[in-house]
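hiii, so i know i said id send this last week but things got crazy w the move. better late than never?? heres the sequnce for the chain we talked about at the cafe, plus the structure i predicted for it. fair warning i was half asleep when i ran it
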Amino acid sequence: MGELSLIRVTDVEYIKDYTMHLEFSDGTEKVIDFLPLLKGKMFEPLRDKEKFVQFGLTHWTIEWYNKADMAPEFLYNL
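okay and structure toks below
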C-alpha cells in the first residue's frame, strides 16, 4: 500500500495587491490572486488590503489574523 501524503503549503510570499507566491510540499509553486476568492463572512474583511497582509504560515496552510484559512488542496488545485 502506498504512503498517503497530504499536500501542504510550505512557503508563502506576499507579492502585491492580493497576490501571493505559494510553494507546496511536493515542490509545486503557484502565484495566486486571492481577490476573487475573498467571499463570505470570514473572507470579506480581507478585502481591506491592510487586513489581507496580516497572515502567517501554519503547519498546513496560510492563516489570516481573523483565523480564516483555505485548505491547501483547494489552493493547490487553483
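btw The chain has a mean pLDDT of 95. thought thatd interest u
miss u guys!!
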